[in-house]
Specification:
425 residues; 48% helix; 20 helices; Hypothetical protein af1432; alpha+beta; Growth Hormone, Chain: A; single chain
C-alpha cells in the first residue's frame, strides 16, 4: 500500500484514492462488499432505467467528498489529526452498511423496530472487535460521542457528505438534472466555528440550490408515484410471504404447508420475527458464526428477487399475483392528493377487488390501500445549516437567505396516495 496507490475510477468524480491501508481492508471486507449487491435506489430503475448504481459506489463517493472536506478545513487551520481523519473517513464509508435488500422499501418488512442506522452501529462494533479497536474513533464519530462534534456533522447532518454525494449521483444515473448541485463549491466554503460546521456567506447561493435540488429530487425521483407503486408492491409481497410462513397460516391452510422457496438467510427473517432485541440476544442462529448479524450480512437484493421469480408460480393466488405483477412490471395505479382518501371509497374498491379475485376481506388489503408520504427539504428543528459572515456572525440559512421560498421549504409537505390494480378500476 505504501508503494502502490489504490484507485477507483468513479463516473462522478474520476479517480478516488484509498488513503489508508486499514480503509482498503474494510473496503475488501465481505460486509462492505455486500453493498455491491444492493442498489442505491431500489426499484427506481423501473421508472428511470439508468438507476442501477449501488450503495458501494455511493459509500466510496461520500468518502471521497469527506477527504476533500478534511483538506478544506485543514487549509483554514481547523485541527484534524491523522487518527481523526481516518475515523471520519471510516464512519462515512460505513454509514450505509446496515441497509438491507432494496433498502428503505423493506426496512420494516424483513426486520422490525430496528433501523438501518441501528444495524450500521452493530456492524461497526463487530468490525471494531475484528480490527482490534482500530475503529473506535470512527464508532464514536458515527454515534456523535466524539469530542469534536463537527466531525459527526460531516457524516450525518442536513449538509453532510452523504447528501452531497447521493444528490449528484442519483441525478447522474436517473438523468434528472434538477438534482445537480455544486458539491465542490459547497465543500470549499465549509469552515468550523465553535465546534459547528458552517458555510461561509459567499457560498449561500450554493446552499440554496442544494436545498431546492433536494426537494425536487424527492418529488421527481424518491417519491415519484410509480416508484412508490413498485416499492409498496414489493412491501406487500414480503408481507404476504411472511403471512404464509407464519404457523397460524400453515395450520389454517393445509394445502399451502409446503415451505416457501428462499435462500437460508432470507428464510431466517421470513420465518421469524427479529427486532433490535433479537440482534443482541441471538449470539448464534442455527450454527451460523457471528449470530443474527452475520445472517443479515448474507442478505442482498438477489435473495429477494430470486425468491419473487419463484413465488410467481406459488399456489397461493395472492402471492403469485403480486409477484407476477412485479416481475412483469404490472404496477399499481397511483392517485396522489393533499387530503386523505375517504374510507368509503377505499372500502368500496376493496369490495370490488374481493369480488373480482374471490378474495377474503383481509386479502383485499394487498391490492387496495392508502398511505402517507412526506417531504421536508430542510428541518431547522434538527441540526441547522449555519451561514458564517465575515464579522463572525452565524445565522441559519432560512434567516440568512434573501429568498422567501427557502424559509417556506422548512414546512413538511404531506401527500396521500391510493394504490389499486389498473385493470380493475
Amino acid at each position: 500500500m505504501t508503494k502502490k496507490q489504490i484507485l477507483f475510477n468513479d463516473p462522478i468524480y474520476g479517480f478516488i484514492t484509498v488513503p489508508d491501508p486499514l480503509i482498503l481492508e474494510i473496503i475488501n471486507h465481505p460486509y462492505f462488499l455486500r453493498l455491491q449487491r444492493i442498489r442505491q435506489l431500489g426499484l427506481t430503475s423501473l421508472v428511470y432505467s439508468g438507476a442501477l448504481h449501488t450503495r458501494f459506489q455511493h459509500a466510496l463517493g461520500a468518502m471521497h467528498l469527506t477527504m476533500k472536506a478534511v483538506q478544506t478545513l485543514r487549509s483554514k487551520e481547523v485541527e484534524i489529526t491523522k487518527e481523526e481523519e481516518r475515523g471520519v473517513l471510516i464512519a462515512i464509508l460505513l454509514h450505509d452498511i446496515g441497509h438491507g435488500p432494496f433498502s428503505h422499501a423493506l426496512e420494516n418488512s424483513i426486520v422490525h423496530d430496528i433501523s438501518h442506522e441501528d444495524i450500521s452501529v452493530l456492524f461497526l462494533e463487530k468490525l471494531n472487535k475484528e480490527f482490534k479497536g482500530k475503529l473506535s474513533t470512527a464508532l464514536n464519530i458515527f454515534n456523535n460521542t466524539y469530542k469534536k462534534k463537527f466531525l459527526h456533522q460531516l457524516v450525518s447532518s442536513q449538509l453532510d457528505m452523504d447528501r452531497l454525494d447521493y444528490l449528484n449521483r442519483d441525478s447522474f444515473y436517473t438523468g434528472v438534472s434538477e438534482g445537480v448541485i455544486s458539491s465542490d463549491r459547497i465543500i470549499k466554503m465549509l469552515n468550523v466555528k465553535k465546534d459547528r460546521l458552517v458555510v461561509e456567506a459567499k457560498g449561500m447561493y450554493s446552499i440554496e440550490n442544494f436545498i431546492i435540488a433536494r426537494r425536487l429530487m424527492y418529488w421527481q425521483v424518491y417519491l415519484h408515484k410509480t416508484v412508490l407503486s413498485a416499492e409498496f408492491l414489493l412491501v406487500k409481497i414480503l408481507q404476504r410471504a411472511k403471512e404464509i410462513a407464519s404457523s397460524k397460516f400453515q395450520v389454517s391452510n393445509s394445502k399451502l404447508q409446503e415451505e416457501l422457496f428462499c435462500t437460508p438467510a432470507l428464510r431466517e427473517f421470513l420465518y421469524n420475527h427479529h427486532d433490535k432485541k433479537a440482534f443482541s440476544n441471538l449470539p448464534l442462529v442455527k450454527g451460523e458464526k457471528g449470530g443474527l448479524l452475520e445472517v443479515f450480512a448474507q442478505l442482498d437484493d438477489n435473495d429477494i428477487f430470486a425468491s419473487i421469480k419463484v413465488w410467481a408460480n406459488h399456489p397461493d393466488p395472492v402471492l403469485s399475483t403480486l409477484c407476477m405483477n412485479l416481475v412483469n412490471r404490472k404496477l399499481y395505479k397511483v392517485e396522489i392528493q393533499d387530503e386523505p382518501f375517504s374510507d368509503k371509497r377505499v372500502n368500496q374498491m376493496k369490495k370490488e377487488i374481493q369480488k373480482k379475485y374471490k378474495l377474503k376481506n383481509s386479502e383485499a388489503d394487498y391490492f387496495v390501500f392508502s398511505q402517507l408520504v412526506s417531504n421536508d427539504a430542510y428541518r431547522p428543528d434538527k441540526i441547522h445549516i449555519n451561514i458564517l459572515y465575515k464579522n463572525g456572525r452565524i445565522t441559519d440559512i432560512a434567516q440568512a437567505s434573501d429568498q422567501s421560498y427557502i424559509a417556506a421549504l422548512q414546512k413538511t409537505v404531506k401527500k396521500y396516495f391510493l394504490c389499486y390494480p389498473k385493470e380493475i378500476f
